[in-house]
Amino acid sequence: MRLCLLFAAIAAGVFGVVDAYLYRTLEVQMAQRDDADLLNKGVLVRQLLRTLPAGGRMPQEQLEAVLAPMIGQEGVMLHVSLPDGQVLASTVEDEMRLPAHAPVPLARAPALDDIVEVDGGPAPAHVLAMLADYGGRGARTQVRVLLLRARSDRLAILEHYRADLLATVGAGTLLAAVLGFWAVRSGMRPLRGMAAKANDIHTHHLATRLDPAAMPAELREMATAFNDMLDRLEEGVQRLSGFAADLAHDLRTPVNALMMQTQVALGQERTVEDYQLLLESNQEEYERLARMIENTLFLARAENAQLALAREHLDLGRELAQIGDYFELLAEDRGVQMTLGPMPEHPLFADPVLLRRAVNNLMSNAIRYTPPGGQVRLDARTEGPWITIAVANRGDGVPSFDLERVFDRYYQADPARASTSSVGLGLPIVRVIMHLHGGSAHAEVRPETGTVFSLRFPRHAGAA
To answer: Is residue 316 a contact partner of residue 299, using CB atoms and an 8 Å limit?
Structure first.
């Protein structure tokens, strides 16, 4: 309806401007035609008066009868007078309103510029004043001739024409409103179809898609964007369902362990040492639950843009050396050799806390899954606009079909995940940290180095 009213307003404006132009054009053309006709009559009257023979006296009635065919009956009035003011012939009803304009001299032919507009009576009139040679008084003499054309006849025509134009504006506006309503309603039919399909979509029915080929060209881009949005929503719902299932599974394991141990301990009288062992075991499960909750909250805050980065320029070599020193004892306990590779001289613009957390997660995984006698290597290098940190280990490796899934929440390549202390959130946290920095995290298997996890940071601050 708003578009219909807008079309009607536009149509009314356009028709109004066009009709005003046509009305003004007709008014000007009629005025020019009337002035040309008045000028021609003046020339004919001057010629007629000049051709009258000298001698004899022509009464006023006879003179008016001679001039009447010249001026016609089209609203033209004639007034002929001598220099002393004596009237020879006149068809003017009120001679007191005759204008006192300077007449066109006898030596010059009248022109359109000599016609002037005067206000007289109910409507303005155009007047031509001129001198003429007249011999009907017994001798040749100059007389003053006034020709007046009232505008009443032209105004009547224009009034009728104006009424027709106003009717045209009203009819055209109404027609534009009706046709605009029909056109908009027909054009928006695909939108109503989109709305109907959108109403059919819910969390258990996300497979509905629009057919862009069946849409008008103006709506194909919207239909494609709508389908892409549904794809993202469907993927998000599936991931959320999987996340909920995995979270329930991982929470159930420590909770069941706590319940079972507590029930067994309460089944009969225990010694103080037994209760101490029970509390130590429960403490391990509580720590596992605390890590799981802390990591889940971290991921939720990061994905909802509630985690602010405190970036600064870091000496990457020194940061990685400190991390290597921290994990060196753990590597020795497990019989794993840890080495540091070359480091770039270019500083790294990153959040130091999140950088250490990401590399620590990779290092702890690498040492955990590397068998005794294996090797873990930590190095960094510059690759164009990126700085890449790589952690490689020669353990059992990650199957190729698991390389992309290892960054999913609660996913573990080890089938016996319930028996380990890992909850499957370390690598997802690494990927989220890299996304916050504008970088990426990748995993690959190389024959010469084994499993390699790479972190790519933007080299320059503006690249992030």
So the answer is: no
Condensed to tens digits (0 to 9), the pLDDT of residues 343-383 reads 888 889 988 888 998 999 899 888 888 888 888 999 999 88
**Which of 110, 46, 56 has its CA nearest to residue 80?**
46
Q: Which residues of 68-96 are buried (b: 16+ CB within 10 A; e: fewer)?
A: eebbeeebbbbbbbeeeeeebbbeeeeee
Question: pLDDT tens digit string along 241-284?
Answer: 766 776 776 677 778 888 888 888 888 888 888 888 888 888 88
> How many whole angstroms separate alpha carbon 253 and alpha carbon 197?
42
Q: Does domain 312-463 have CATH number 3.30.70.20?
A: no
Taking Cα atoms as reference points, which of 284, 286, 264 lies closest to residue 275? 264
Structure tokens, 139: 């001798």
Lowest-pLDDT range of 38-42, 203-207, 272-276, 277-281? 203-207
- Provide φ and ψ at 243, rounded to 5°: -65, -45
* Phi, psi for 347 (deg, rounded to 5): -70, 155
**pLDDT tens, 434-451?**
888 889 998 888 777 788
Q: Where are the domains of the chain?
A: 2-159, 212-285, 312-463
Cβ neighbourhood burial of 48 (10 Å; 0-12, 13-18, 19+)? middle
Of 143, 141, 25, 13, residue with least CA distance to 87: 143
Average pLDDT value for residue range 205-233 = 82
The tokens describing 205, both together, are 């029915």
Segment 307-325, tens digit of pLDDT:
667 888 899 889 999 998 8
Q: Where do the H-state alpha helices sit in 87-151?
A: none
For strand 375-383 and strand 337-340, is the pairing parallel, antiparallel, or unpaired? parallel
Task: Give the pairing of strands 141-150 and 125-134.
Answer: antiparallel
Express each pLDDT in 379-403 by its tens digit: 999 888 899 999 998 765 555 545 6
Put the strands of the sheet holding 76-81 in their side by side order.
Answer: 87-90, 76-81, 141-150, 125-134, 116-118
Q: From 3.30.450, 3.40.50, 2.30.30, 3.30.70, which CATH number describes the 2-159 domain?
A: 3.30.450
Per the structure block, which two tokens stand in for 346? 């270019």
Residue labelled with tokens 């997660």: 361
Alpha helices in 267-348 (DSSP H): 272-303, 316-333
Residue 323 φ then ψ, to 5°: -65, -40
pLDDT at residue 418 is higher than 50: no
